[in-house]
Prior knowledge:
Blueprint: H1 5-20, H2 45-60, E1 65-69, E2 73-77, E3 85-92, H3 94-98, E4 105-111, E5 119-126, E6 132-136, E7 141-143, E8 146-147, E9 160-163, H4 170-173, H5 178-183, E10 186-188, H6 193-201, E11 207-216, H7 217-230, E12 233-235, E13 251-257, H8 260-269
Helix pairs in contact: 1-2, 6-7
The structure holds D-MYO-inositol-1-phosphate and calcium ion.
Amino acid sequence: MQIDWHQILIECKINVKASIKPFLKTIKDPQPNLGVGAGGDAMKPMDLAAETAILDTLKSHDVSFTLISEESGVKKFGEAAEECIVTLDPIDGSTNFMHGLPFYCCSIAISRHPMLADAYAGMVADLVHGATYTAIKGKGAYRDDEKIKPSTTAVLQDAVIGLDLNTYKVKEVVPKLTSLIAETKHIRHFGANALELCFVADGSTDAFVDIRGKLRTTDVAAAFLILKEAGGIMTTPNNHVLNVELDPKQTLSFVASGNMQIHQKILTLVKSLC
Ligand code: IPD
Ligand code: CA
């Protein structure tokens, strides 16, 4: 059966948006204790509603798949579940959502094997402003209907660079980034890393650096494909090929850049944790 993943992913986005809307009215209310998700964070009602919306959409298309989700973990659906891996972060930017901050997204990647570099279809959907980033392996990356490409900015002083400093290991992580911060003028972090990687893919920002070793593969799987298909670069902080197992508990560190010149400059300044 030929599956039109682009169409199904867009349907997922529409259904996720509808499913989380009611929760926007209750974010200030006390939240039920739903336990901890497979990725290790407390689950919120809208995370589960978004995941259910995606599962229902996939089931309505009779797709067999193995789910790798930040919320429910690994589960098999249908008779040929091994043939298709769906790696999911139903809501990336849950803290933003809960604080009424308008920056969160949904991330879905499709692959044949549970490896990051194996994804062949992916979507990161901005659930606030509406932009939908998609990629099919070998066919480029798109923001809605427009083909995207990363920035050519190679001058660090001109660059806008995303930097995730959310960590309890501040004393270990921050010193490795001070040289980079000192060389730049425009550092950003919005709080939904999947979408921030898509900003590198479409040239809105010039790079995104996360060397905490904390970000999960479920957040990165779709954006990794989108960035690569757009023509961007994403490696470990040591400049090794990035390819890890897709698993809700698997974490990674990376430098993602719009072009090779700025990538090399950032790698030189970032002292690796590894
Ligand atoms: C979080 C966001 C945030 C990053 C955290 C992630 P979540 O994802 O991507 O920007 O700093 O490490 O956990 O928990 O909202 O899916
Ligand atoms: Ca999440």
